[in-house]
Amino acid sequence: MGCARHFLNLTWAHHSWQRRVTSAGRGADRATDMWGRVVSDDYVRCRKQDVCQVCGTTRREVSCFCDRAHAERCPIYRDRLDQPSQVI
Is residue 70 part of a domain? Predict the structure, then answer.
């Protein structure tokens, strides 16, 4: 079954989008706060893409940048970690 819908000789696409992480990377950064102290930051950067569950069509890609604690709670990022063939 495709995603094309037909009504009164009109055709349009009706996709069932699901967001997934296409690539992700971890990093660490050292910065100085406003009092001159060195602060270490662990972060995760993900590239997310919307994919149709029915036909596999993709649309826009979004870049996400968050701290590691938030990324560990993100369901989309955790799904990528659960896939054994993915290296992060």
Answer: yes
Let me know how many helices (H) and strands (E) the chain has, helices first: 2, 5
Please report whether residue 12 resides in a domain.
no
Q: Which domain does 45 fall in, by range? A: 19-82
Report the C-alpha gap between 33 and 41 in whole angstroms: 11
Return the residue matching tokens 């009164």. Answer: 8
- Provide the number of structural domains found in the chain: 1
Tokens standing for 12? 């349009």
pTM score, two decimals?
A: 0.58
Contacts of 33 (CB under 8 A, 6+ apart): 39
Which of 15, 23, 12, 8 has its CA nearest to residue 58? 15
Task: Read off the pLDDT of each residue in 6-27 and give the average, rounded to a whole number.
Answer: 81
